[in-house]
Each structure stands twice: as C-alpha cells, then as structure tokens.
Amino acid sequence: MTLKISISGIRGIVGESFTEEIALEISKAFGTFLNNGKVAVAGDTRPSSKLFKHLILSGLASTGCLPVDLGICPTPTVGIAVKELGCSGGIVITASHNPVEWNGLKFFRGDGTFIKEDELNKLINIWKTKKFKETAETKSIEKGEALTIHIEKILKVLDVKSIKERQFKVALDSCNGAGGKITQMFLKELGCKVLAINVEENEPFPHPPEPIPQNIKDLTELVKREKADIGFAQDPDADRLSIVSEKGEAAGEEYTLALSADYILSKPLNQKTIVTNLSTSMIIDDIAGNHNARLIRTKIGEINVAQEILKSAAAIGGEGNGGVIYPEVSLSRDSITAIGLILEYLAKSKKKTSVLIDSLPKYYMYKEKININSAEEAEEALNKIKEKYISEKMDLTDGVKIIFKDSWIHVRPSNTEPILRVITEAKSKEEAKLLCNLILEVLNQVP
Ligand code: MG
Question: What is the pLDDT of residue 140?
Fold first, then answer.
C-alpha cells in the first residue's frame, strides 16, 4: 500500500507507507511552503501521533516557522485555532476514521480552511524535490490551548439558554479519540447530563473508528439503558458525527447533516443556500425544497464544499458522511458544532430525536467498488456509462452522476485508491442494489 495523497491530506500505514522520515520531510516542506509565521500543530489520540508530533514540530522550526503545540485536538479545533491565534497554517496528525495502524497529516491554511489542490501540489513538489528552506536560528516551541477557543466560538452562535433549560441527558461515544475531552466540556456548558463512553485519550480505539451503525452498538445500548434523550458518536479526529435516537436506534450518518440543515434552514435567513457534495443523500434535496432553499452540489472533498459555501455565502453545508460545516463557526466539518445545532433543534422544536428523524424522508444507498488499473481505464468505464444513460439527466462535475426522479447513480474514480466508486440511492434497498448491478453489468463486472 503506497502513501495516499489527496486534497484530504496524506495518509498511510505507520512504518510502511507513512514513516518518520516522510513526516519530518513533509513538515519541512510545509514550513517552506508557508515561508514564515506561527504554525499550529495537534494530533489525535493514536499512539503514533505523539511520536510524529515531535518530528513535525522540529521540522517546522528548522524552516524558520514558530510551531505552536496544541496537544490533542479535534481537526476542526485546529482550523479555528489557526485563525484565532493568527497562525499562517496548521497541521493535524490524524488518519481520521482509518484503523489505528494508519496515520497521516491534514494541512490548514491561515484562513482556517484546508489547503487547496494547487497548494497541495506545490507542497508535494517541495517535498519531492527536497528544496527545504533552512534557518540557523533556533525558535522555541510555543504551547497553546485551543479547546476553550473552539467551545467559546460555538457557544456564541447557539441559544444556550433554551438548550440549558431542557437539561438533556446525552450519551457520547468518542471512540477514545480527540473529541472526548472537548465534547464533554462543551456538553456541560450546555447544562447536559453527560453519559460518556470511550473518552479515554490513552486507551486504544474500542471499535472500528467510523461512526456507522454497526460500530456503535455500545452507544445504542447505553442510550436505551439510561433513557438518554440522544446519543452522539464521533470519529477519532471529531470532524464526523452520527446520531442515536432516544429509542436506541442509530440514524445513520446521512441524518446528521440532514437534521442540522433542516434546523438552520427553518430560521429566517437572508440567504437560504445549502452546499453538499454529489454523493450525499437526496434527503438534502427534499429539505432544500421544503425550505425554498437553493442546493449546490460540489465535487467530492471537504475543501470543495467549504469553498463553495464561502463563494455562495451559504447558511450551512457539509457531507453525508456526518460532516457538518456551519460557516458561522468555521469552514471545516465539525462534530462539536453539529452537536450544538442538533441540541438546539431538540430544544426549540420540543420534539423527541426519533420524531425529528422520522419526519425526514427515507432513502437507501448501495455502494460498490470496482478495481481499475489506470486513469485511461477509468475514463473508458465512465464513457461506457455515459453512453448507456445518454438520454438521462446527468452531472459530470465529478465522474458521472445519473439523476432520476427519486433515485440516482454516481460513479467516480476515488481520490485515494485505484478504484471506481459506485454509489446509488433509491426509495428501497432492492432498487438501490438493482441500480448498482446495472452499472456493474455495463462494465462487464459480475454483480
Ligand atoms: Mg475524521
């Protein structure tokens, strides 16, 4: 497995594709790219993150930058800290929802958004050509605290009083990741009774880290047993969130953005625009329709959504994988902000979590991967699909998306792996699977 390089950052298996040497060199490349200033550095709770952090702090210092060590922080916290502390950039050491053997780096620009594609290419070019800036001057490493900055920022945009009045009982599973500490602090600020599991920073991940229904059974049990109002599950760098209803039912990640958007778009706004990527559920189309809002779909990749939110001055945006971007707080996916919005929705609507979830339409997704050997092969496959569906409504922004009345098919080359991703969505499981099989047939793959 080679090092994965994409606009989501770099990611690899520790000691194999992602080594100490690579971490050191890339931090020097990032310092060279930024060319000065303070650089925020934080990691998730993986044991390897600590080791990499020392290398990255010294790599940055060797280029004349001033590293600011923020300790263990969620990815969105670093984005906010970069901006608030006047840094010229930031690095988060995390492999997000990948298993513990993995680690990687995400890069923030000075404005608190992720670096763009052309900037990433520039960074990788500096790394590959090893043209690192060097300085003889030794800069010390600053220590910083960013959790309270992040919490304050969210509290400012919430109706804290309404939430506090409800004294919600909230169950939390942070997968022993970077979200545990800050989320407990945040929930206490909102007057919640917190029932937390898997919030130990020094313990291993207790289950596969993606917050999808099959991985969060302990949380669903906890919600039921303790009669909590809601349950929240985060991935290890706390940019993704999923919800469990008071009945102990996992809603699935698509409902996190859906509920947050349903709430924000119900407010009186000047600009009712929502942004999401092409692979996010049609629930968002229905919500946008209900609120007379404009929906803009982008290429896959968080930065693409964030840039469009900025450009269109959207009220909210994000991804169907549980990534909510609320621009009043920041331009990156943020599970802690999403928790605040959903609790405010519960407080204001005076409805139960399951009622809010059930009020949204239900769709079913089906996903497949097809191995490909080259970019040409991917192109050829996409052309075959385009030909087959020539008379249908199509979006060619990112691969091929064929849009039917209440279903769709999206086929695109992965940003990180030599595969084509096939995602379909329809009103029933059977139909979603059938749509996927049609694509496999077109590409001569056995379903
Ligand atoms: Mg993540």
Answer: 80
Closest CA to 105 of 114, 97, 113, 95: 95
Q: For the chain, which ranges sit under pLDDT 70?
A: 446-447
Q: How far apart are the C-alpha atoms of 384 and 446, rounded to whole Å?
A: 16
Ligand 1 mean position, distance from CA 355 (Å): 28
pTM of the predicted model as reported, rounded to 2 decimal places: 0.96
CA–CA dist 45, 258 (Å, integer): 29
Q: Would you call 405 exposed, middle or buried from its count of C-beta atoms within 10 A (0-12, 13-18, 19+)?
A: exposed
Cα–Cα distance, 401 to 129 (Å, whole number): 38
| Residue recorded with tokens 């809603």 | 251
CA pair distance 219, 177, nearest whole angstrom: 15
Given this model, what pLDDT does residue 147 score? 97
Place of tokens 């056995």: 446
How far apart (Å, rounded) are the C-alpha atoms in residues 52 and 43? 9
Burial class (CB in 10 A: 0-12, 13-18, 19+), 155: middle
For residue 257, the CA-to-ligand 1 centroid distance in Å is 15
From ligand 1's centre to the CA of 238, what distance in Å? Answer: 6
pLDDT of residue 447: 60
The answer to whether residue 242 is catalytic is: no
CA distances (Å), 89 to each of 31, 35, 106, 112, 303, in order?
A: 9, 10, 11, 8, 15
Query: What's the Cα-to-Cα distance from 130 to each of 26, 301, 404, rounded to whole Å?
Result: 9, 27, 49
DSSP annotation of 230 = E
Q: How far apart are CA 238 and CA 241, in angstroms?
A: 7
> How many angstroms separate the alpha carbon of residue 143 from the centre of ligand 1?
24
Whether residue 176 contacts residue 142, with contact meaning beta carbons closer than 8 Å, is answered with: no
CA–CA distance, 60 with 27 (Å, rounded to integer): 6
- Pairing type for strands 142-143 and 169-173 reads unpaired
Please, are residues 75 and 106 in contact by the beta-carbon 8 Å criterion? yes
Q: Choose the catalytic residue: 48, 49, 96, 281.
A: 96
| Nearest residue to 48 (alpha-carbon basis) of 98, 11, 1, 102 | 102
In contact, 87 and 34? CB cutoff 8 Å? no
pLDDT for the residue 367: 94
Q: Which amino acid is at 394?
A: M
How many angstroms separate the alpha carbon of residue 254 from the centre of ligand 1?
15
What Å distances lie between residue 111 and 82, 178, 314, 394, CA to CA? 7, 22, 17, 34
146 vs 154: CA distance, rounded Å? 13
Measured CA to CA, the distance from residue 321 to residue 56 in angstroms comes to 29
